[in-house]
Amino acid sequence: MSLLKTNEIQNYNGSSLTLTASTVSTSAQLNTGGNISVTGSLNVSDDSTTRTNLGLGTIATQDSNNVNLTGGTIGSSVVFPAGHVIQVFGKNGLTGSDLSTTSSTLIDISNSASTDTLSVQFNTKQANSKFLILLNANILLNSGEGAGLGIHFNDGTTNTDVYETDANQLTASIPSGDIYQSLFNQFLYTSTTPANTSVTITGRIKSYLGSSIIIEVNENKGTSISVMEIAG
C-alpha cells in the first residue's frame, strides 16, 4: 500500500484534476476555483450545514410524492388541478334605496339611483376557468306578478347575459295582495377567458308581466351575489 500525504495538490496545466481512488476523503475544507464532478456518491458528515452552504432549505429533504408545506405564499404561476376552487368573491346588499322596475327584459340589480350594482369584479387566476355563481334577490311582488333572474358576464371579449330564467320557471303568480319573495338561482358558467383577465359578473332581474316589482337592496334583506372561480 502506498501513502501520499500533502497539504496541497495543484494540477500543472490548469486542466482538470482526476482522482481515481475508490474513496477520497478530507477532514478539512476543500476549495476549488472550478467545478467538482462526482460520478459516485458524495457523503458529508454535516448534512444541515452542507444544505445551508448550498442555499437549500429543509424542502430539499422531502420526496416529491410526500411534501409537507408549513408556510409561504403560492405564486401566481401555479396551475391548480381541475375542480379546485381558486378564489371566491361576493357582495351582500347595496347602498341607497330599493329599486322599482316594470321591465320585462333583464336589467341590472342596482339601487334606485343606479349608483351601486349587484356585481363582483376580479382578475382570473387561470385560463378557461369555470364560475359558480350564486344569486339571491329579495323582492316585493304586486298581485298576480312574477319575476325572474339573470346573470351577465363580461371579460372584455364575452359581454353578454349567460343565464336567464325561462318563463315557466318564474315565480308563481300571487292570487291576491302583495308578498315578499326571495328568488335564488345558481349557475355554472364555463369560460374561455385567459388568465389574469378582468371579469365582471352582474346579477340581473326582470318583471314577468310588466307590472311593478320592488327589489330590496339592503344587506339585511338577503339580496346578494357570490362567485367562485373553479379550475377548468
Q: What is the compact description of this entry?
A:
With 232 residues, the protein is mostly beta strands. Helix content is 3%, strand content 33%. It has a domain at 85-230: Jelly Rolls.
Q: Residue-averaged pLDDT, rounded?
A: 82
- Tell how many strands the DSSP assignment holds: 11
The first-level CATH class of the domain at 85-230 is given as Mainly Beta
CATH architecture of the domain at 85-230: Sandwich
Main pleated-sheet profile: 6 strands, antiparallel
Order of helices and strands: HEEEEEEEEEEE
Q: What is the 3D shape?
A: rod-shaped
* Terminal Cα span: 68 Å
- The portion of residues assigned to helices is under 10%
User: Please, how many helices?
Assistant: 1
Q: Structural class given helices, strands, pairing? A: mainly beta
Q: What fold name stands as the CATH topology of the domain at 85-230?
A: Jelly Rolls
Structural write-up:
With 232 residues, this protein is mostly beta strands. The protein has a domain at 85-230: Jelly Rolls, CATH 2.60.120. The protein is 3% helix and 33% strand. The strands form two sheets. Strands 1, 2, 5, 8, 10 and 11 form a six-stranded antiparallel sheet that branches. Strands 3, 4, 6, 7 and 9 form a five-stranded antiparallel sheet that branches.
Which key features would you list for this structure?
232 residues, mainly beta, Jelly Rolls, 6-stranded antiparallel beta sheet, 5-stranded antiparallel beta sheet, 3% helix
